[in-house]
Amino acid sequence: MKTKRLIGTGVKLLLALLVAAWSGFPILLVLISSFKRTADIFEFPPRFVFMPTLDNYVTLYREWPEFFGKLFNSLVITIGATLLTLVVTTMAGYVYSRYRNRLLTTSAFFMIVIRMLPPIIITIPLFPALNYLGLIDTHILLIVLYSTFYVSLSTWIMKACIDQIPRSMEEAAFVDGASLTQTLTLVTLPLALQGVLAAAVFVLAYSWNEFLFAFIFTSSNAKTAPLIISEMLGSVTGVNWGPLFAAATLQIVPILVFVIAMQKYLVAGLTAGATKE
After folding, report:
1. Where are any strands of DSSP class E within 35-185?
2. In Å, how far are 218, 230, 247 from 37, measured between CA atoms?
3. Is the torsion defined by CA of 262, 265, 208, 238 positive or negative?
4. If you placed Cys at 60, which of 92, 215, 243, 268 could pair as Cys (CB 3.0 to 4.6 Å)?
5. Whole-model pTM?
6. Given a cut of 80, is residue 44 above it in pLDDT?
7. Residue 240: how many CB atoms within 10 A of its CB?
8. Residue 160 in contact with residue 195, Cβ under 8 Å?
């Protein structure tokens, strides 16, 4: 029995390593290539031991200086969308967790249905309306769009976490004279922190890498880093792969580090409500 358990554990570990290698190798290849000379990037077999150089990053700064400004745009929009989503979904998750009626059930079903629609479907009717309102190519537009797209998932994550918080703790706070706002901020929210962080990871990753809405609804002021990378790929003078890999590395590494750092909170938030004690 013990031998079977060890074999099962070994197989699971091997499968996990294969999945990690399959997912991580392309990222590792991009990262390593950003420090190679352009002539050495596509040599086969690839070399993993070489003298690193920062020439690609220097070339990126010299030939594509707008990338760094658009990277800052991505940062502003990502933080704004994440904060807006967390505020809205924390309150929504609390309502769905603590109250029951037909209207809430209908709205919950509506959120799920809307989330299943591809984003491209809503861009056609949205564009003329947003253009009329003068919101095209603004940071606030992308913040609202990104937040709207992830409200449903984040709301259900928050609901699952708040479901696990005993109502008696909130009732005790009410008895002591705390208002609803005080109870939410001092009792409920600290206990639901894992759900907040899990929702934040999803919104951050989506907002940081989103391309479609940024491509359709921006032209210059609110352009994000992924758009500049796409322009580098479509350059009429040919693709300069060294600076391209440098830009991709600067785009990937921050969100990758954040997701790895928040991994345990992400797992805890997503598994909230999966078991009942």
Report:
1. none
2. 34, 21, 15
3. positive
4. 243
5. 0.83
6. no
7. 17
8. yes
